[in-house]
Amino acid sequence: MVENEKKLDSVEMESNWSESIESFEDLNLKQELLRGIYGFGWNKPSKIQQTSILPFIKSRDLIAQAQSGSGKTGAFTIGSLQIIDSEKSEVQALILAPTRELAQQIYDVYVFIGEYMKVKVLNLIGGTEVKESIKALENGVQIVVGSPGRVLDMLKKNYLKLSDLKVLILDEADDLLQKGFLENMKEIISLIPTECRINLFSATMPKEIVSLTDNFMNNPVKILVKNEELNLKGIKQYYVTLKKEWKLDTLMNLYKGLDIAQAIIFCNSKKGVDNLAEEMKKKGHMVSCIHSELQMADRAKVMFEFRKGVTRVLISTDLTARGIDVYQVSIVINYDLPTQKETYIHRIGRCGRYGKKGNAINFILPEEKDQLDSLMKFYDFVIEPLPQDLSQVK
Fold first, then answer.
1. SS (H, E, C) 133-166
2. Are 38 and 81 in contact (CB under 8 A)?
3. Dist CA 293 CA 274 (whole Å)
4. Which whole-number Å values give the CA distances from 320 to 80, 101, 251, in the listed order?
5. Helical H segments across 230-368, by residue range
6. Orientation of helix 296-308 relative to helix 100-113, angle to 10°
7. What is the pLDDT of residues 176-234, one digit of tens each?
8. Beta 4-8 vs 11-15: how paired, if at all?
9. What is the pLDDT of residue 300?
10. Which of 17, 32, 208, 255 could form a disulfide with 116 if both were Cys (CB 3.0 to 4.6 A apart)?
């Protein structure tokens, strides 16, 4: 294959794969799958879907990077549903995600798109009933979506068997292949059949992560976005420099001056999330908060109510920074500037989903100005000072 570069929706992508499709019909998909795709509301494949589904179906290992909200979940959902043999009851696709919330969201997409297919999907995450999961596996499922910890536990206990696995998919792969998940991931990968293909998807794919894949991937198709192309189209980015003790009052002023449908406010710690939620409630704001110390049922309830619009403000750690879709989120506020550059793109990508406009506002302490400059240099974009006249923020 010839190395080439393409312009996809004004986003420059480096790829070693030259084929693409214009419509879902071009893929010669199963009719039941096509029906599910259209029922989900997808009429035309997004750019990442145009380029990545074909190599997926053609049994290639794949590293696919694209902007948040670009349709990556749809790409691997469609690809895996197409290659599944619904007449067999063995697990043929395993999808891993770094958080329970993202795994649940992926599971929901599989269930919806696969509605007209004879395919059983199991969500294998912490906080779910183990006995029910074991029973489902014994009765036969073709697709498992899960978090690494629970999946590895079920593998070690021999409840989950991968002898018929066709594809392993890592969503938010760069997160899964870093400390905290890496040892579990190595063990899971060592247990998959040699003929099983591996597919990686993420909005950010650092070079060191791509290099790491040389150890376990076979000549993968690579569809990668340059750093400078990752500033999400449709999202205006601002910063305001302030002292730490001014943060809360500044936040309250933003709510007075801006028309906000729904918002996610990111803090760097669980304590910060709880403290900010308490302060905002004191000032009469109806907010919800989420972090890893909440029980699974409580986290699920928070996300359900936020998606339904019951609460308009979600205060969160980076637990919801990756992959979570809430279409009405119009603004992301980094109450604390993220410590990792890659996390910034994931956070602000929670607004402006699927072409909608959004705003990202960053609270910057005076001593964090160098960190902000480094962030702009890394992604080659400009984060503007927040206008004093908030009517200019649209």
1. HHHHHHHCCCEEEECHHHHHHHHHCCCCCCCCCC
2. no
3. 11
4. 25, 8, 20
5. 247-257, 270-282, 296-308, 341-348
6. 60
7. 998 789 999 999 999 999 999 999 998 888 888 888 888 899 999 998 765 545 556 67
8. antiparallel
9. 82
10. 32
CB-CB contact of 386 with 243 (8 Å) = no
State residue 117 phi and psi, 5-degree precision. Answer: -105, 155
Strand-pair category, 287-290 with 313-316? parallel
CA angle 273, 255, 328 (to 5 degrees): 80
Q: What pTM, to 2 d.p., does this model score?
A: 0.75
Among 65, 72, 66, CA closest to 45: 72
DSSP 127: T
Q: CB-based burial of residue 177 (10 Å sphere; 0-12 exposed, 13-18 middle, 19+ buried)?
A: buried
Helical spans, DSSP H, in 224-269: 247-257
CA dihedral 266, 268, 274, 278 (to 10 degrees): -60
| 256 CB-near residues (< 8 Å, 6+ apart) | none
Longest dimension (CA), the chain: 62
Cβ contact 197:224 at 8 Å: no
pLDDT single digits (tens) 303-326: 888 888 888 899 999 887 776 777
User: Is residue 381 within 8 Å of residue 237, measured between CB atoms?
Assistant: yes
Per-residue DSSP letter, 85: -
Residue 361 · residue 254 · CB < 8 Å? yes
- Closest of 12, 375, 58 to residue 223, by C-alpha: 12
Identify the burial level of 64 via C-beta atoms within 10 angstroms of its C-beta, where 0-12 means exposed, 13-18 middle and 19 or more buried.
buried
DSSP conformational letter for 386:
P
> What is the amino acid identity at position 190?
S
Distance of CA 291 to the CA centre of its chain: 16
Structure tokens at 70: 């670009």
Given a contact cutoff of 8 angstroms between Cβ atoms, the answer to whether 195 and 23 are in contact is no
Tell me the three state secondary structure of residue 63: strand
Going by DSSP bridges, is the β-strand pair 262-266/143-146 parallel, antiparallel, or unpaired? Answer: unpaired
**How far, in Å, CA of 55 to CA of 112, rounded?**
23
